[in-house]
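User:
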Amino acid sequence: MKLDNWEQDAIETRLDRLGMAFIEFNEFAEFSEQYDLSWGEPIQETDLEDILEAKLNQSYKDYKLSKSDYFQNCKTMLTSEKAALSKCHQIFEFYMEKKALGSTTKYLDKDFGPMRKSDLDRCKFTLYKNGEPPKKGYADPREVEFAWAEELCAHKGVKP
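Assistant: Predicted structure:
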């Protein structure tokens, strides 16, 4: 089939509507049907792109975290913005309930950042997978300061 450039662009846009640089067979088969082309394969009911799109359109408040959302099985390092917002929302709700009961405990992420100011090794591996900056110009872990939001706000004269 010979296509003009605009037709090729239209096909690629239609087939890769989420901009993820892949074309699922279901999408291709559905598109082909519009031009009376059949590939002799049934269109599956579980269209992965539709499932992904539904997941993307879901509110972070309703999003259910799964193992695939955790980066290297770490419960506080997430693989998507939606998953990260969902986790933050869970943590916020949990600590708001504790605060309502009189607790002043702060959230401490045991997987990220140093546990104390002198914890350089933890800081190095928080920033970089192997503990070393990957390229010249990346921050030296000895020069990075981790701070509580309250400390940052107090420094700027803002109440948290």
